[in-house]
Amino acid sequence: MGQLFLNKVQKFYGDYEVLKGVQLEVKNGEFVVFVGPSGCGKSTLLRMIAGLDATSAGDIVIDGIRVNDLPPVKRGIAMVFQSYALYPHMTVFENIAFPLRVERMEEEKLKAKVENAARILHLEQRLQQKPGMLSGGQRQRVAIGRAIVREPKIFLFDEPLSNLDAALRADMRIELAKLHRQLKATMIYVTHDQVEAMTMADRIVVLDSGDISQTGAPLELYHKPANQFVAGFIGNPKMNFLPVTCKGVGANGVEVDYQGQTAVLPVTPRDGIAGKALTLGIRPEHIQLGGGDIVFKVTPTVIERLGANTVAYASLNGESENFCAMLPGSVGIRADAPVATGINAADCHLFDEAGIAFERRVELTEIDMNVINPTAA
Amino acid sequence: MGQLFLNKVQKFYGDYEVLKGVQLEVKNGEFVVFVGPSGCGKSTLLRMIAGLDATSAGDIVIDGIRVNDLPPVKRGIAMVFQSYALYPHMTVFENIAFPLRVERMEEEKLKAKVENAARILHLEQRLQQKPGMLSGGQRQRVAIGRAIVREPKIFLFDEPLSNLDAALRADMRIELAKLHRQLKATMIYVTHDQVEAMTMADRIVVLDSGDISQTGAPLELYHKPANQFVAGFIGNPKMNFLPVTCKGVGANGVEVDYQGQTAVLPVTPRDGIAGKALTLGIRPEHIQLGGGDIVFKVTPTVIERLGANTVAYASLNGESENFCAMLPGSVGIRADAPVATGINAADCHLFDEAGIAFERRVELTEIDMNVINPTAA
Amino acid sequence: ADKEISWIYCGDTIDPVHTKYIKQWEEKNTGWKIAPEVVGWAQCQDKATTLAAAGTPVAMAYVGSRTLKEFAQNDLIVPVPMTDDEKKTYYPNIVDTVTFEGTQWGVPIAFSTKALYWNKDLFKQAGLDPEKPPKTWAEEIEMAKTIKEKTGIPGYGLPAKTFDNTMHQFMHWVYTNNGKVIDADGKVTLDSPEILAALKAYKDIVPYSEEGPTAYEQNEVRAIFLDGKVAMIQAGSGAADRLKATKISWGITTLPLGPDAKGPGTLLITDSLAIFKGSGVEDKATEFAKFITSPDVQSEYELQGGAGLTPLRPSSKVDEFVAKDPYWKPLIEGISYGGPEPLFTDYKGFQNSMIEMVQSVVTGKAEPEAALKKAAGEIEAFK
Amino acid sequence: MSVQRSTVIFAWILLLPAVLYVLAIVAYPLVDTFILSFTDASLRKTTNWVGWINYEKIFNERFAEVIFRTFIWTFFSVALKMVIGTFGACMLNAAVPGRSLFRLLTMPPWIVPMAIGIFMWGWMYNGQFGMISGMLQRFGLADGPVAFLAYGNTAFWATIITDVWIGVPLVTIYFLAAIQSIPKDLYEAAWTDGAGRWYRFRRITLPLMVPAIITMSMLSLIATFNSFDIIWILTQGGPSGETTTMIIDTYQTAIGSKKYGEGAARAVLICIFLSLFCFAYFRVTRRLNPEKRA
Amino acid sequence: MSNAAMIDRYRWWEIILIYCGIAMFLFFVLSPFVEGFLVSLKPLSQLFSSPYRFWPENGSFEAYRTMWISVPGFGRYIFNSFFISTVVTLIVLCLVIPAAYAFAKFEFRGMGILLGAFLTVNMFSGAVLLIPLFRLMRSMGVLNTYLAMIVPGVAFLIPSAIWLLRTYMIRIPQELNEAAYMDGASHFYTLRRVILPIAMPGIIVVAITTFIGAYAQQFIFALTFNSKTEYMPLPVGLFAYFGKQEVIWNELMAASFVGIAPAMVVIFFLQRYLVGGLTAGAVKQ
Ligand SMILES: Nc1ncnc2c1ncn2[C@@H]1O[C@H](COP(=O)(O)OP(=O)(O)OP(=O)(O)O)[C@@H](O)[C@H]1O
Ligand SMILES: Nc1ncnc2c1ncn2[C@@H]1O[C@H](COP(=O)(O)OP(=O)(O)OP(=O)(O)O)[C@@H](O)[C@H]1O
Ligand SMILES: [Mg+2]
Ligand SMILES: [Mg+2]
């Protein structure tokens, strides 16, 4: 119960095509996160699933029933808004009870349900307060409480944590994850914060201007991004991209040349790429001081010391801060003092001119297959 | 010239003492960040320095002159507001030019100055647009532009990045750091995001309900927090605290007992602590799987896989998620599957009952002294 | 420059006759100028009063004669005594309307009387002789009844809205029964058999009047009559003028008489020019007032027809006029036993009590005797 | 704190022109009226100090009735304005084609000179020739002319309706604005939970309009309490004084009967009543938003 | 498929209900105008005829022509109304903008009382204060000039204008003031360069309400304080269609429609701001 199928869903605003035929299947009980840059259509898609916005073309199917023309309540979904949309004039109790009042649930049952929800969300003490007196995190929980009392098949969240400060966000993230396990409901979660996406999702859907760019488990996206867009979007700090030339193709992968140094990257080769300009991708956390398959000198311009690790930014090829390395916390580098850095071929990603990734020969099992597909476990 | 001295600055709202005698000296050209939980008085202090709020008691001295009764413009201060406070009806050019128009600067000089500021901030293309058409980061830069044209001695920033999304925030952080180096002005920056504090500050001032809890370079606060409040506030995820008992004091430090295991922590001992209940602090990034001076089994309840690293949360002693470990990205742990974790005595912090830290015997020079006191370099 | 005589002139525009004679007078009296200010009927009286009360009176204003007593008592206007010769030129009783404490306080400039109009078609329809209008109240009530019962159309148009002419209309009944509200010595004689009879007649005729008399004032009732939806009304000359434009066949006669009547009567309403005290040009204003109301000017003004005015003075011209338009005759005949608007210091207070009295009888809230007693008691305070 | 003192001085400088203007034009006549209320001022040129007599005179039986009627009249008029205004605002808020035209069409009663609007209503109410009576007869709902202004209670309601009519456009527009400032996501949230239109109106729109309703009630209470032209033109307070409100009575006393002193006393009384309302209003709004403004 | 947000999508019967509701509402609002309009079309002689006929028999726009003849100054009256209202509006804005700003942005002792006092002024219909006002106007020597209507008109329109504008200005973020203050701008400079432009929608609302208040409603002052026909405003001009015996109803109504047309045009163009401006100001208070 809670299975969602989007079939070539399209959305037009006038002539402007916001969603270009989204095709997606969400399994029952799955936690799916939509990520993507601002304006890519995440909210629009979510609102269409909710039934708040009309679908221009395509089908939205929930549990086998096409729901395009059903109002939200008939779809068995509940939505938590970014702004929480709490009713300012009602107490927390009444806010949570609202969906039940709509159903005219009898008082006793209603009370039991609200109190149960409040217990799950640790809101027992707040039931008689108005939303105006609550902190951001508490409000957020009230909004969730309002969603869970209805026992919907599918929860929709639109950037629910973006109004919270970092500490609270971390706490709420954990609570949401636990809630998911507890309720076993299908959840669809929109965010543009990819840390949230990585930590919470069973599966991440990366949207790029109205299209699905890649779907997959968080670590699959991290380790095997299908294209340069996903590679750049997933991972923080952003992946570094270096222009390389393809020297040739061998059994061990593709040989590339970066400013005279060559390395063989363990990716599945394709035909006819010899001599072509390709893009090499390397995550900041895979850059090390000193040796590696490819080494180069950089002069960090900005150094951020976060305690646990140190992030160094440098200009490569004269462009502004396009190179970033994440190094251990106590690393001895200084701004404006050149250092030698290196990367290992095994950590590299390779993209063709169109930005399509060459499949990496990474054994995901090495990383712990159970984590990559936790639902399969 | 941009030296600031706060002498026993107090602020009352009615009977409520918001600031309890703040004593602080800011050197010329320093980048000082005020951090602290919400409501601790950061904004109030900043607004008092700016001259927006009156000072209840104490002196605010800028370059040797007591400015308590001077209006902001006479203090040589510029402020960037959290909400940017851009004038929505004026173009970017006019917004930046505003302070110069107030001074009735002649048109040509004004134009030159605005254009110069726009160049520094990469706003040349936007000068004729209205703020409503700009993205968050661009607006932020306009607000900074308005501050820099006046060439103030001191810049004040009140959570300037909190409205931006994570990616933009990272970019702006770098730009602000560069701007600081470029202008060499004194900057005072308020935030409750301690990542920002760590990465940007020459010196961090941790405020705790109206009092300064500790002042120091970012890594000093990270490695040698003066008390439990600072220890918990600096570092992300938060430091873990474990209740321990003092077994005795030796030459190598303090011997503590945690659930039957003992370890000698390399901290400067004090008299009469034997047998007392103390608190051991250990950062999540210093927890490792397997061995260590103290080892214990935990059952992770929530696991966040960020790609580069994995954060595991567990309940210790039955409390909710009070234990957090930051492990390598591809670590093989699973929720609800117990694992053995360990910590090294050298990484530990120790606090007495009042929360005051025992000084750690960490050689900060080992970590690169230049980084800890960059201005001294 | 020229000395000015300010004049509050009621209406929408200055009558061309007046314009003509103002010019004539100004030519004769060099150095003097008449400055008329045209103020709508609804407000002109109040405006003159406000100005006087505020201490900046106009020289001369067109006011209802009924307010003259109030003005005089409060020392706002100067008397404008008439010579006996002058008095004689007017129809009888007219001078009384501006007389108080033995002298005259204004110069009459407009005059109206009422007569009974009846709709011959409706009479015919009801089986009555269309050429025989009622002569007495009893006949009037009886005929109204017949018409109402036979045709379903109300027999009588009774205005009883909270409006000044509700009292006026009632005063017609008072004066057609030899009644008096206040006698020459200033004694209130409202509670008299004559007036009680009038009030009772009102009560009797209500069932045969239009639905909801308290919603209509005189002009509205007239409009209903013009529409053929009521058979009889009391109205002034204006109605005749308008009837000409309709298909109704109508007649006009003197107002029906009550049991105690001595002869045809009507309420004599005059408007006067009052000369305000303190304008500094009182004498010249008086002179002008007399000029502009002098027989020739006045008859030219009032005999234009259509305005609803009745001539103030008898003259050969009037006779000619009556001969031409015989409907004038009953309007003039009533003057002989007519009476003025009763002069009270607080005229409005008095009027309100009278309206209240009429309305309470018309709506059946009170019996005539009780209503009359109550009103008589109240108006004592307004003398 | 010098900073703050200069700010306060500046605030007063800003206020001064308006304050002085109103003081000069209104306060003087106001004080004059207040003084007048203790005299026997009339058309007579001399006036005497009479103390509280004018106030004592007010409280005869008749006036008690007038006060009572004024309150009832005001209550119904304001209540109807609020109800119709809310209704209108909701209707005009609905996303249907033509709504901006409809919004424009609500304005005329507000723009037309009040007297003219009232005359038009006078026409409507006319039993013989008016639209309402005519239509009622046409549709067989009445078997003869219905003279609305003829009877106490119909005239009472007729004047209220006209007053409502004049007040409704501003109330509607104001409420429309209030409705539009309610965040849209509240409705979406409620709708997601299955709340229908009516339910959403009852549980969200209405409660969130309360501040606007209170403000408008206050402003229209003042206007309605002082509403003069409507009753004066339609009924002059009749029939039998059944539409006489305090302001009508004040006018009749002061302007009609020229008893300026007594009239002034009545005016002062009206003022006292309204001040009490104002006071209550401030108390209520303070309770509604206890926190100072943002 | 329409693109309207789903929540605004109505079922057919809901649309019918909404239109019925709107029709009911507009019927209430407009029916007197319908009656008035029909009256203006009927020849005077036919005005009073029963049974009631909705459509006038041989109705015509004749009254719209003759009204100019019956009251030759009517155009002038409209002009006067426009002129007076414009001047009144300008003066009110000049006085009210600073005052509303002070009420909205500064906190000082006595503010509540003063605000209440302004509301109190709203309570007095000019009618009650007529005679003292007259004396005042006289001593100011402005009787029988445009000023006689402008001066008191302004006074009685100030209070509600302050209320409206204040609620609007409260919503302008305080940071803008502070930012300007930081940059050394004087209070006055801030008001002129920052607040004024931002408050424009609110100011337009106030301007419209003031204009209309002055345009159509300020009857009694004109009547009492001015005697010169050439200065009279529209409402007084309309009363020129009242004779002693009779009201020229059809021309009166025609004139009313002609008279309010200019104001309607103004509203037509500004109504967007009217609702929008109130929206921004309506939430609190
Ligand atoms: N009502 C509308 N009319 C026209 N275009 C719209 C409308 N609503 C959204 N859009 C456009 O659709 C695109 C997708 O908007 P959407 O709100 O779904 O983005 P998003 O992915 O949620 O972005 P964000 O992360 O900023 O919330 C945007 O380019 C936006 O401009
Ligand atoms: N005008 C005021 N009147 C009374 N108390 C105030 C006022 N302004 C601030 N405070 C109180 O002063 C304390 C400090 O507020 P301040 O805004 O400086 O906090 P902050 O550290 O900036 O918090 P945040 O991170 O949430 O911005 C708070 O407890 C607040 O409630
Ligand atoms: Mg979105
Ligand atoms: Mg703050």
Which descriptors would you attach to this protein?
heteropentamer, D: 294 residues, mainly alpha, MetI-like fold, 13 helices, 0% strand, E: 285 residues, 73% helix, disordered C terminus, binds adenosine-5'-triphosphate, binds magnesium ion, MetI-like_sf (chain E), BP-dep_ABC_trans_perm (chain E), Carbohydrate ABC transporter permease (chain E), cell membrane (chain E), transmembrane (chain E)
Q: Spans of chain D of 5+ residues with little confidence (pLDDT < 50)?
A: 290-294
The oligomeric state is heteropentamer
Total individual domains of chain A: 2
- Roughly how many Å apart are the termini of chain D? 23 Å
Q: What is the annotated CATH architecture of the largest domain in chain A? A: 3-Layer(aba) Sandwich
CATH fold name of the largest domain in chain A: Rossmann fold
Question: Can you characterise this structure?
Answer:
The complex is a heteropentamer, with two copies of chain A (377 residues), one copy of chain C (383 residues), one copy of chain D (294 residues) and one copy of chain E (285 residues). With 377 residues, chain A is an alpha+beta fold. In chain A, 25% of the residues lie in helices and 32% in strands. By secondary structure, chain C is α/β, with parallel strands linked by helices. In chain C, helix 7 (164-175) packs across helix 15 and helix 15 packs antiparallel against helix 16 (368-379). The model of chain C has no long low-confidence stretch (mean pLDDT 85). Chain E has two domains: 12-59, no CATH class; 64-281, MetI-like (MetI-like fold, Orthogonal Bundle). Chain E has helices spanning 12-41, 44-47, 62-70, 74-105, 111-123, 130-140, 146-170, 174-182, 187-198, 200-216, 219-225, 234-239, 249-282. Chain E is globular, with a radius of gyration of 23 Å. Chains in contact: A-B, A-D, A-E, B-D, B-E, C-D, C-E, D-E. At the D-E interface, helix 1, helix 3, helix 4, helix 5 and helix 6 of D face helix 1, helix 4, helix 5, helix 6 and helix 7 of E. Chain D: The chain crosses the membrane at residues 7-31, 71-92, 104-125, 155-177, 206-225, 264-284. Chain D: Belongs to the binding-protein-dependent transport system permease family. Chain D: It holds the Pfam family BPD_transp_1.
List the helices and strands and how they pair.
The complex is a heteropentamer, with two copies of chain A (377 residues), one copy of chain C (383 residues), one copy of chain D (294 residues) and one copy of chain E (285 residues).
Chain A: E1 4-13, E2 16-26, E3 31-35, H1 42-50, E4 57-62, E5 65-66, H2 72-75, E6 77-80, H3 92-102, H4 107-120, H5 136-148, E7 154-158, H6 166-183, E8 186-190, H7 194-200, E9 203-208, E10 211-216, H8 218-223, H9 228-233, E11 240-250, E12 253-258, E13 261-265, E14 277-282, E15 287-289, E16 294-298, E17 300-305, E18 309-314, E19 323-328, E20 339-343, E21 349-351, H10 364-367, H11 369-372
Parallel strand pairs in A: 3-8, 3-9, 6-7, 7-8
Antiparallel strand pairs in A: 1-2, 1-4, 4-5, 9-10, 11-12, 11-14, 12-13, 14-21, 15-20, 16-20, 17-18, 18-19
Chain C: E1 3-10, H1 16-28, E2 32-39, H2 41-53, E3 60-64, H3 68-73, H4 84-89, E4 99-100, E5 103-104, E6 107-112, E7 115-119, H5 120-125, H6 137-151, H7 164-175, H8 193-205, H9 218-226, E8 232-235, H10 237-243, E9 250-253, E10 267-275, H11 282-292, H12 295-302, H13 316-324, H14 328-333, E11 339-340, H15 347-362, H16 368-379
Parallel strand pairs in C: 1-2, 1-3, 10-11
Antiparallel strand pairs in C: 3-10, 4-5, 6-10, 7-8, 7-9
Chain D: H1 2-36, H2 53-58, H3 61-93, H4 99-105, H5 108-111, H6 114-125, H7 131-138, H8 152-180, H9 184-192, H10 197-225, H11 229-234, H12 246-256, H13 260-288
Bound molecules: adenosine-5'-triphosphate (2 copies) and magnesium ion (2 copies).
